[in-house]
Amino acid sequence: xxxxxxxxxxxxxxxxxxxxxxxxxxxxxxxxxxxxxxxxxxxxxxxxxxxxxxxxxxxxxxxxxxxxxxxxxxxxxxxxxxxxxxxxxxxxxxxxxxxxxxxxxxxxxxxxxxxxxxxxxxxxxxxxxxxxxxxxxxxxxxxxxxxxxxxxxxxxxxxxxxxxxxxxxxxxxxxxxxxxxxxxxxxxxxxxxxxxxxxxxxxxxxxxxxxxxxxxxxxxxxxxxxxxxxxxxxxxxxxxxxxxxxxxxxxxxxxxxxxxxxxxxxxxxxxxxxxxxxxxxxxxxxxxxxxxxxxxxxxxxxxxxxxxxxxxxxxxxxxxxxxxxxxxxxxxxxxxxxxxxxxxxxxxxxxxxxxxxxxxxxxxxxxxxxxxxxxxxxxxxxxxxxxxxxxxxxxxxxxxxxxxxxxxxxxxxxxxxxxxxxxxxxxxxxxxxxxxxxxxxxxxxxxxxxxxxxxxxxxxxxxxxxxxxxxxxxxxxxxxxxxxxxxxxxxxxxxxxxxxxxxxxxxxxxxxxxxxxxxxxxxxxxxxxxxxxxxxxxxxxxxxxxxxxxxxxxxxxxxxxxxxxxxxxxxxxxxxxxxxxxxxxxxxxxxxxxxxxxxxxxxxxxxxxxxxxxxxxxxxxxxxxxxxxxxxxxxxxxxxxxxxxxxxxxxxxxxxxxxxxxxxxxxxxxxxxxxxxxxxxxxxxxxxxxxxxxxxxxxxxxxxxxxxxxxxxxxxxxxxxxxxxxxxxxxxxxxxxxxxxxxxxxxxxxxxxxxxxxxxxxxxxxxxxxxxxxxxxxxxxxxxxxxxxxxxxxxxxxxxxxxxxxxxxxxxxxxxxxxxxxxxxxxxxxxxxxxxxxxxxxxxxxxxxxxxxxxxxxxxxxxxxxxxxxxxxxxxxxxxxxxxxxxxxxxxxxxxxxxxxxxxxxxxxxxxxxxxxxxxxxxxxxxxxxxxxxxxxxxxxxxxxxxxxxxxxxxxxxxxxxxxxxxxxxxxxxxxxxxxxxxxxxxxxxxxxxxxxxxxxxxxxxx
Amino acid sequence: xxxxxxxxxxxxxxxxxxxxxxxxxxxxxxxxxxxxxxxxxxxxxxxxxxxxxxxxxxxxxxxxxxxxxxxxxxxxxxxxxxxxxxxxxxxxxxxxxxxxxxxxxxxxxxxxxxxxxxxxxxxxxxxxxxxxxxxxxxxxxxxxxxxxxxxxxxxxxxxxxxxxxxxxxxxxxxxxxxxxxxxxxxxxxxxxxxxxxxxxxxxxxxxxxxxxxxxxxxxxxxxxxxxxxxxxxxxxxxxxxxxxxxxxxxxxxxxxxxxxxxxxxxxxxxxxxxxxxxxxxxxxxxxxxxxxxxxxxxxxxxxxxxxxxxxxxxxxxxxxxxxxxxxxxxxxxxxxxxxxxxxxxxxxxxxxxxxxxxxxxxxxxxxxxxxxxxxxxxxxxxxxxxxxxxxxxxxxxxxxxxxxxxxxxxxxxxxxxxxxxxxxxxxxxxxxxxxxxxxxxxxxxxxxxxxxxxxxxxxxxxxxxxxxxxxxxxxxxxxxxxxxxxxxxxxxxxxx
Lengths: 1007, 496
Known about the structure:
The complex is a heterodimer.
Chain A: H1 2-20, E1 24-32, E2 35-36, E3 41-44, E4 50-52, E5 58-63, E6 68-72, E7 79-82, E8 91-92, E9 100-102, E10 107-109, E11 117-121, H2 133-136, E12 144-148, E13 157-161, E14 174-177, E15 180-182, E16 195-201, H3 204-207, E17 218-223, E18 230-244, H4 255-265, H5 275-279, H6 287-291, E19 295-307, E20 311-323, E21 330-343, E22 349-363, H7 377-383, H8 409-419, E23 420-438, E24 443-462, H9 467-473, E25 485-508, E26 514-537, E27 565-586, E28 590-601, E29 610-621, E30 633-647, E31 664-669, E32 675-681, E33 690-703, E34 708-727, E35 737-759, E36 767-785, E37 791-793, E38 797-800, E39 807-810, E40 813-816, E41 823-826, E42 832-833, E43 842-843, E44 852-862, E45 865-875, E46 878-881, H10 882-887, E47 932-934, E48 937-948, H11 951-956, E49 961-975, E50 988-989, E51 997-1006
Parallel strand pairs in A: 1-8, 14-17, 46-50
Antiparallel strand pairs in A: 1-2, 1-5, 3-4, 3-6, 6-7, 9-10, 11-16, 12-13, 14-15, 16-17, 18-19, 18-51, 19-20, 20-21, 21-22, 22-23, 23-24, 24-25, 25-26, 26-27, 27-28, 28-29, 29-30, 30-33, 31-32, 33-34, 34-35, 35-36, 36-44, 37-38, 38-39, 39-43, 40-41, 41-42, 44-45, 45-48, 46-47, 48-49, 49-51
Chain B: H1 2-16, H2 19-22, E1 30-31, H3 39-50, H4 56-65, E2 69-71, H5 95-119, H6 128-153, H7 183-202, H8 218-231, H9 235-248, H10 257-261, E3 269-273, E4 299-301, H11 303-310, H12 316-321, H13 338-341, E5 363-367, H14 368-381, H15 385-397, H16 412-426, H17 433-444, H18 453-459, H19 480-485
Antiparallel strand pairs in B: 2-4, 3-5
Helix pairs in contact in B: 3-5, 3-6, 5-6, 6-7, 6-8, 7-8, 8-9, 8-14, 9-14, 14-15, 14-16, 15-16, 16-17
């Protein structure tokens, strides 16, 4: 309380003091080389009087003639000006030479950075309608592939940098938020608007220092912070959005046409109707409208930032409510963030703390992507018989096991809507603190501490009055004919990270042209996981309420089914590392750097526990050379790096493969209900890290005063000691395989990103036009597989030497035999056959991983209006379209919805066609390639039109700045893929929940 | 200087506190040295060996591959897509083939681990019986595992020099590889284990009481020896065993027969593997929810089996195997879609009504009836056709409502054919049909499998009746994974 009162007193005092002097109004414009600067800070030196510039760079401030004004802006050199008798002070700021790159453990001046990295800033993330910030970044960073398998708001995405580096292991980058490593799969409880910068570190020079966690690249996120000596600034942004499902191109049947098909083939309802009855048939629902909807999003974000001489703060609050397009899918999120920084009077001691708390409620329907027809709403939406009508839903008709055939699934699913639910409540707290102390002018001691805490509570229930519960209650002759089930599951995940470092930096020689820096670190990581769950059958409808236990029937002596089942788990893991880095720079023209790191992982044992990773890098800032004087290049930098990183998450999951080195027995229920124990796992003590060695050559360029700017990188990444299943003889007694380090693979590629300012506005009345593009090409190849024949057969894919990872391995479909309507395939010798075998499979040269991917677009501004758009594309992905396979399966006539492609099925009168006869007998040839389809796409990922509110209007309502906008995500998609959404990370799709199209309108205000 | 001391202290503190990050044992880890320490541990451990004594995969595969079942009303592609076993798609990559091979060796591994542990333990006074019994059980189960593998994966059971399976009597290391033994070596191995087990059982001070028939004793040993001897055409040994067993066990009565399958009676059972809540549900192979027409049958009785049963309405197997809710279409051959109009629900495994979970039944491994057939085959081999007929009659008397007529066989082929046909009914869905056709079809003058044309058209199968001359009807392939993992040290069978 005391501090608050002090604060208020200070404020009062300041006001009093100000009144005591003669004041004058000073106005002016703050500009940079490109034009007005919005948001620059103007402070009366030594006071708390401050303001910020508006969109036109204008400011107004009260000051005395003896005052000095301080002009500052992030990324620019600060300037000062004495007021004197001036009433207009225009100030031009220039870009700070020290544009910095956040490299995880440290920040480095851009010019002196040896690493391959790309940074995007808040503007490229904010004001997008997607609830997941990672999905907002899609298509914006070359080589960073982001694919999302679900339309669930805030759902997880697959994030992969420069191709998959592992088969079973984790392939996603390490994410650091303000220096705190966080779970890479879960961002639904974090506020995207808090993000300030998003930096992707790519090459070994940048990632080797992260040792066994840097193998797949590192993403360094910083959140916003207050600036020293800046006035209180309050920002509000709010938006409303509408999400809808993207349509598919399967040409599904109408009710009448479907009945005609049934009539023709003697199936289902249609077989019992006359032509007249079909022609006058009026029933039928669009079941996609029953199970999908327009999802409404509302989002509010409020932030406060300010700073004094010694402390500054940033605080934000946000609330987001987003309905998914699928029924019962929803995200509700509340977040609070507090970032503080401060320093001692002499500036030798500095600290900052970052703390965010997010709480989200996620309604997440289960069974998506599965063939559980009574549980998967996505199945009901597009696979229900079109002549069934939702108005005929009658719970009493869903009685008796015979009512539960596949045809009835839409009604069962519809019934579920009233009685079932699945929700995950999540609390996430990410906290970090950094302390720095300058021991001498050359030595600095730093300590970083971070925690990532996630707690989830899952509730999954099926009420006792649902149709499924009612029928289950009658199935096994229970004396208490009640069913209904409820599962609750709690998890707690705590990850702790501690890092102590001693840093040295010194410049010497003439004009301090030589500079060296070196650091030594000790890092300690520990993580703890705990879960508990129960599942109960038998809920008394009189007292049933989801998430409550009053209704449990419990063990009644007759039926063991009412006894709840429970589960509990506890895990921990740890890492300990020592590492160091050193850099030398000459005159910002030449630089070399090296890192070395020793890591111990709790996953490994004995000699394999410790791993050593290292890198070397060199740089040449060609633009600094004398011979470049007068050239169009204002920036030209060549970088070369080589080094190794490791992956200890050899089974992917954060808590995976924790004890694989040890032989373990497990206890449990044995024969005839006796407790026993059996071998649970045969240990492999020789397990070790997967090692990834990367060579990277890059060029950074800026021409015509950075009007054209960009980067070009080529790389080669070799993964050795790949961890995957090594085939075993049965006699070992533990099944077909056991994990071991038995393969190598390689990713190599090229990445280019560039921006060009076609029109540079001198003031806001002018046109401004910037175009940008990035593209990355990656080639993946397995270089060694330690199995016989170098081929690991996974059915319709295989892992084989000289092939890409999980390349498709199928029997080619060769059309339809005009003679008999049977499907035709190619045998291994290239001959047509109707009866191929698995030996006729071959590699297709395609897989589910992108070859080329990227994004492009342009930003246009004129007279307070701004327009931006961003396209994204992926090429080289193929996928099994099992949705389509279901839609053309003649066995499903009378059972589920189908494609009108069946109308051109082979008949004696229609012999030349691509659809086999409805009675063809070889449609189910295993591992055939008929439904393997190209899924390349080009998509208008994001488009936005906005208007900056005019200054005079804002001044009247005492706002600093304001803008309104409309935007859309996934507005248009171009693809041969016939399903709802081509942008998925998997090799096969059926009955999935696609990502939506979202429109939104929003407003940003600052005061 | 003070600062440096402070830093040094801090670094030291960090280092000391760091081992807990690198040496982590997960909660609940049960390490090998702690597992088997005394006879009590062996007694607990034997239940783990028992729990993987299983023939459900053999029963399941046999029924789907041969002519025991047809595609059911609720079939969602099982048996006809992916592995397509029902369409005679049998390759080294067939899942069931790999599953049985690997699971049986895991079972053998459990027995070997227990036997190896027992070798290192000396029983204390008063523990000898328990110790010897556990070892006898483990030896018998190890023999059962080897016998099961040899039966299906060796090329010719009647030729001792033919390639058999791999004998394993130790605990192999990760990556261990051994070549296949001959059938003769397999037989020696199995008989050795059985002899040892038998003498241990017979040497117990208090013999194993086995009223529930779910534990192994000397009768299990003899039954296994009898079966193995029969398959390898060692008829004298087979008949000796049959005689020993039939002295103590009679064929289950007609009255008790349905209760035997609902696990309410042990009549006629020599050994069954008990299955309780939480174990696999054998009935789930053919039915989804329960064994009624509305219980979503995935597979149904083959029409040929049904027609044979239906010829004799008094045969208790007709009412026991076929659920009363079945929808029987007399015009199934001409029905537009017989899959939905002719529903023959398998009820041989209706589920034990005393359990909470549905469709769980004990797995009947050895029944007295099987040894009537063993004796019958031995009689035919001796050209005592009347003797064989008596054995067949002994079974039928307990199945038909009235005493059955004594069959009359004009020649051995007719007798073999009758044994094969009666085994098809009596041992229906017990995992015998594949090996029976393989062993007996040529002797019986039978082409091979006998499927109904309507069943085949539902399945979309052009080549309806598989001939026994086809390799896939004689023996199974070695799983591809085994051949690959051993780099061809374990060789593939001829014809695959």
